[in-house]
Structure formats: structure tokens, C-alpha cells
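Before the break, one more example. Copy the sequence into your notebook; we will annotate it together after we see the structure.
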Amino acid sequence: MSILTELARIWLTRSVRPFSFTSAYDSSLDLCEEQNLGLYLHIPFCRTLCGFCPYCKVPYQEELAKAYLDALLKEIDLVGGSLPSRRQVTSLYFGGGSPALFAAEIGRIVKKLREYFEISEEIGIELHPEDVNEETLKLLKSAGVTRISIGVQSFQESGLQALGRTLERPEQIFDALARVPFETVSMDFIFALPGQSFEELRRDIDMAFSHGANHVAIYPFIDFTDTTRGFPKMPERQKRKLLDQITAYCAGQGYIRDSIWTFSKPGTPKYSSMTRDNFLGFGCSATTLLRNQFKINTFSIPAYLRRIGEGKLPTALTLKFTLRQRMVYYLFWTAYTTVVDAGAFEAFFGRKLNRCYGFELRMACLLGLAKKDGDSYRMTPRGAYYYHHFENYYTLSYIDQMWHLMRNEAFPERLLIR
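Here is what the structure looks like once it is written out:
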């Protein structure tokens, strides 16, 4: 456990109290006061399992996938049926796994969700490169999908080899995107791979933007407990140099930095499934974030099917936030967008940002990590690098610990994150 994240938690929450998750079953979902509510739906099936991917997934099996789809629709009924009326939400995102393995059923799932929710903005979905073909894209578009994110990871042979991936015909991806356009086409890339140069990353960025993408995500390789890395870790100094070069190059090309590791063409709506004030999660491993609580569903598909079959939500662990804990969670993910808006913070919490964290914000500005911009605080490139650095500690100290436990126990009794 990193002492850095523990000290940061104690300081920012003004308490030694850890984040305490319990297994006590709680079917309540009080959505009355929740604003800017999003939806997330997890499809945990892949054709093959990539060793570098930390997310909840299993090899595709037709019968298991059919059973999972039925349970997923029942879970939507369980949650939606508890609402007093049809609820407006901002967005819907499908993640995985490889959600496009359910391409023929995405329309059915969206239709079921629309019985209970009015989706006012985007519908997004993650795609494996193998799924980017004209037939699949047409199915998704007819289901209402407006934004897609393609997990390319690298167009370079050296990068693909390091990750154990292949990409034999990238032109198939480019042709399909030209024939079936979407509002946002994002491509994901991993940096800090062995021997990786800025020139290789620049070629990836240029190839993406010149062949259908209007948004790219470039994030560092992170060592999770349940992933494999068959190469030495890149030195931190070299990693920082690459990040600075990526940032400077994208700025020089006129791309907009709309989060810590995403860049887009001007006027492009961003692809982001996490930066929501609140969201409801459906499916294995999906999380639900509300004003006062955080819930995570079981990672076990058999346990998920059994729980839904009993007419119960598949919640495995629940955290009841203290006010300061919720503030820290809010600020962490808001800072991921590189801008923290004091007015939005006050609207959400009913408290002024400067009164709660004025000292920390002043120090961030003095250290060159952020700049005050009217009623907002905007992260500098220096701040973005240190956020990258801290996010790595956060991921390994918090997310990795939770996911490792959930992979080994369908319904753990308790989880303390200090």
C-alpha cells in the first residue's frame, strides 16, 4: 500500500477513517436528487484474453452469453422498475470485454433501457479492432450508438508484439469508418512500451487522425496484479519526456486536450465513460456512483446469474461516503478532465470550493501544477504529469486492490482501503 495515497487520503478527507466497503445487502438506489446521471453497461466477453487488460472479462461462450444477456435485461427491469417515473440520463456507455460481440443485441438492450430512462445525449461503445467492420458499425449505429472507442493500442509492430496483439489489416478499420461515420471516433493507444520512441507515437497519432479518428486516448502502461508484462518498466524520466512530447505535439497540431490523456480535434464531443457526477452500472463488475454511496457488482458471472435469478441486485460491496470522501472522489475525477470548476463544485455539494480546499488549490498554483482561470482551476502540463504519476499510485493502491479481491471472491465480506 502506498504511503503517498494514504497520506493524501488522510489530508484531503481530514480524517484517518479509511474507505470502508461492506457486503451488507442494500437494494436502495435513491436517485431523487441525482443530477447529470449517466448509465454504464458491462459486457465481460472477449474472443481472446489480452494479458495487459485488467478489466473483468472471460472467453466468449455462446450459451453463457445468452444467459448473461437475459440476466442483464432482468437487472435493468429490477432497477428501472423501482423508479417512480421515467428518468432522464445524460449518456449510456458500453464497456468490456468486447461489447461488439453483442452487436446484434445492443439495439434490444438500448430499447429496454429506454423503457425507464430518457437518454438526452450520447451512446458510446468500446470496440476491439477486429470488430470494426461495416456490418458491425451499421448494427451499432442503427441501435443509436453515436460515439465509438477503438482499442488499437498501437499501429506499430513493436508495440503490438510487446502487448501480444496483432493488427493485420488496419485499412479494413479505415474503410469501415469512412463508410459508417459517427459523431466521435476515438482510438486508444498505450505508451511507455519497451524501446518506444516519440516518433512511433507520433506516427500512431497521425495515422489515427488522418484515417477517421477525431479523438485519441494515450495512456501509460500500468502494472495491475492480474495482468502480465513481459518487458522491463520504462524509466520514469523517459516516460515523462514522452508525455511532454505527446502533449507538445498535439498542441502544435491544434488538438484540444480534453482530459489528462485524451486529445481531440476542435469541436469534437469527447468520449468519456467515467467523468460523470453520478452513474448507474449494469452487469458484472459494473459500478454505481451516487451522491452518498458507491456500489460495485460481483465479478463472477455465475454469481451474477444466481443473484439476478433470485430477483436481487448483484451488488457485492457498498461504500457509504462521508462528505469529505465524496468530495475527494469528485475532485479526483473532475481533475482528470484538467479543469475543476468552483461553481460546479458548489452546485453539487452546496459548499464553496475555496472554503473546503483553498489551501490545496493555492499550493497547486504556486507549484505550477494549476492556474486560476476565472472561477475555474486549469491544470498545467506540469500538473498533468504529476496527476499521471499520482494516478498510477491511486490505481495500484485502490483500484487494483479492489479488483484483485473481487476476482477471487464473488461476494467479499469487507474491504478496507486505507
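The mean pLDDT is 92. The chain has two domains: 1-16+323-409, 17-264. Try to locate both features in your own notes.
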